[in-house]
Specification:
Blueprint lengths: L15 H13 L4 H7 L8 H15 L6 H10 L1 E2 L2 E2 H5 L1 H10 L7 H30 L3 H14 L12 H17 L12 H7 L7 E6 L5 H14 L5 E5 L4 H13 L5 H4 L4 H16 L2 E4 L8 H13 L6 E5 L14 H19 L2 E7 L20 H7 L2 E6 L1 H4 L9 E9 L5 E8 L4 E4 L3 H7 L13 H13 L4 H15 L13 H8 L6 E3 L7 E3 L1
Parallel strand pairs: 3-7, 3-8, 4-5, 4-6, 6-7
Antiparallel strand pairs: 1-2, 8-9, 9-10, 10-11, 12-13
Helix pairs in contact: 1-3, 1-6, 1-7, 3-4, 4-6, 7-8, 12-14, 15-16, 16-17, 20-21
């Protein structure tokens, strides 16, 4: 039998060009190190010379020293072995210069770093596979081999995120950079905004590494609130949103998004009783939704545990679609990672701890919906409190922000004077203020919006002598008037709106004009949102300051 020729030796996965681009970006634009230094350790580089240079760059950066071709070369001269410095090992000053010239643009530094990281993980997987294969040949204790394999495989991608104690000097560059961002953007939201100004002024957006909770009794509007904010984050702030939906199928969730975006009664998506103009609005909403960076994972994906959630986010990251923020509905559907617990509290603690560590690992915000205990319904004042969280100990402790929803109309459908309103109670806020935000909630269309619209409307009204914008049709202007009147707006503004409506339509009775949608006006408003406003295109009454 002829001998099978040996398979040619294959090089481990790596990208010389990506490694050069990451280092080159750091040499000519130090600010790229804010992200790349968190992603890559020296061992993530395949090329030995690059490992040495990256270690030196990180050393200079952590000691608040400038990083460029000169400083790196000088530092490399100080280290190494007698007779052969690290500068000699990497190829001299010329190679350091070549690294700086190798990058086409520093704007893609984080993308290059993720390429290097992916190859590094693949190399560790290959090594793990070889080691596991050898152990399986040499040992009869397959359970121990399998246990080691599982343990080591889960640790592969955590190596770069685990840290021991660091000196104050090592932490200072990151703290200084974060402070500089806050200083330059005075008063701006530092995290990912919700798109609802009342909430953003208290919470200051959702920050990476945080685990947050939104809790309420059933039918309060938790899912609707989640979808409103997720749409705002994807549309207004161009953030990639991952929604993990464990209570309903993705098709139903999409329908609720479309109802919100098109301003259509959600019941019509069940009955199919659409008017012709409904279908026009639905088509516009579908076209807009298709463009948004929103990914949905529903209950059919087999997510059962908190560890499954981490694996799901990791899968998106590997596919190049790492989310900027994660929303989950709801945490009560998750099970702990262990097969058995002494108590429910212990299981919940394991779940929240896993989610919190996952948020820190990926540097993104994990926001989960949660049910409340029935105890809240037994009190005279049914506004939720932290103690109403089911198994509240770990939920309250691990969450950075805890928000509750309360609708008086839910408990007093006939007598409530707050119909169409919802309180968002910020009960815990680790880095900001607590308090209550009063919002409008249109249950039929699943839309949340701010109540305070007066300042925004003033900003958008044309000056004296100017006509309404061409795209401002009568029914949209009537919506502005309705919102203004609801806030007790002054007669001067009312008179101007009525006058302009009359000139535009020949009808001075604005109340008789049928209101259809808000879409056309929001398109006009988006043109001027670069000044001081950002429009919520999913609200039929509101505009939001930024």
């Amino acid at each position: 039998m002829p001998e099978t020729p040996n398979e040619p030796e294959r090089l481990p996965p790596h990208s010389w060009e990506a490694e050069q681009a990451v280092i080159g970006s750091a040499l000519i634009a130090n600010q790229t190190l804010l992200e790349t230094s968190k992603i890559l350790e020296p061992f993530d580089f395949y090329v030995p010379q690059h490992q040495i240079v990256w270690k030196t760059i990180r050393h200079l950066w952590s000691n608040l020293c400038p990083v460029d071709m000169v400083t790196v070369s000088e530092e490399l001269k100080k280290t190494g072995e007698p007779g052969r410095t690290d500068l000699d090992k990497v190829g001299g000053r010329q190679y350091v210069t070549d690294l700086a010239l190798a990058v086409a643009t520093t704007a893609n530094a984080t993308y290059y770093a993720n390429i290097v990281k992916r190859h590094s993980i693949r190399r560790r997987i290959i090594k793990l596979g070889i080691r596991a294969s050898r152990q399986a040949f040499e040992s009869d204790d397959y359970e121990n081999v399998l246990s080691n394999l599982i343990r080591e495989s889960t640790q592969i991608d955590e190596t770069g995120t685990r840290r021991g104690a660091r000196s104050a000097a090592e932490i200072l560059p990151e703290a200084r950079a974060a402070l500089e961002i806050i200083r330059v953007n005075k008063g701006a939201v530092t995290g990912i905004p919700t798109g609802i100004i009342d909430i953003d002024e208290k919470v200051w957006g959702f920050n990476g590494g945080e685990f947050n909770l939104l809790a309420a009794r059933p039918s309060m509007g938790k899912t609707a609130f989640m979808l409103n904010v997720a749409l705002n984050q994807a549309k207004l702030y161009e953030q990639r949103v991952l929604i993990i939906e464990l209570e309903m199928y993705e098709e139903r969730l999409i329908n609720r998004m479309l109802a919100c975006m098109a301003g259509l009664d959600a019941k019509k998506f069940k009955t199919g009783k659409f008017e012709s103009w409904d279908l026009d609005q639905l088509a516009k909403a579908e076209k807009e939704l298709a463009k948004l960076p929103i990914d949905i994972v529903d209950q059919r994906a087999g997510i059962r545990t908190a560890q499954d959630v981490i694996a799901c986010v990791e899968d998106r990251r590997i596919r190049g679609k790492k989310p900027d923020i994660v929303w989950g509905d709801h945490i009560g559907k998750l099970k702990g990672n262990a097969s058995k617990y002494f108590s429910t509290e212990q299981e919940v603690s394991d779940i929240t701890d896993t989610l919190q560590r996952g948020a820190a690992k990926f540097g993104i915000s994990f926001n989960w919906l949660s049910q409340l205990s029935r105890a809240v319904d037994q009190r005279q004042d049914k506004r939720p409190m932290l103690s109403d969280l089911r198994n509240s100990g770990s939920l309250e402790q691990d969450a950075s922000v805890v928000m509750f929803l309360y609708r008086d109309e839910y408990y007093n459908p006939k007598d409530s004077i707050y119909k169409g309103e919802c309180e968002v109670i910020i009960a815990k806020n680790r880095d900001g203020e607590t308090g209550t935000c009063d919002l409008l909630f249109k249950k039929e269309t699943q839309q949340f919006s701010s109540k305070d619209t007066r300042d925004n409307i003033k900003m958008l009204l044309p000056s004296d002598g100017e006509s309404l914008p061409e795209m401002l049709h009568a029914y949209e202007a009537k919506q502005v008037l309705h919102a203004w009147e609801k806030q007790g707006g002054d007669s001067y503004v009312e008179e101007r709106l009525h006058k302009q409506l009359s000139e535009h339509t020949g009808d001075s009775h604005a109340d008789q004009i049928e209101v259809r949608n808000w879409t056309v006006l929001t398109e006009e408003w988006e043109k001027i949102k670069g000044s001081r406003i950002v429009v919520n295109p999913y609200s039929d009454l509101d505009v939001f300051n930024t």
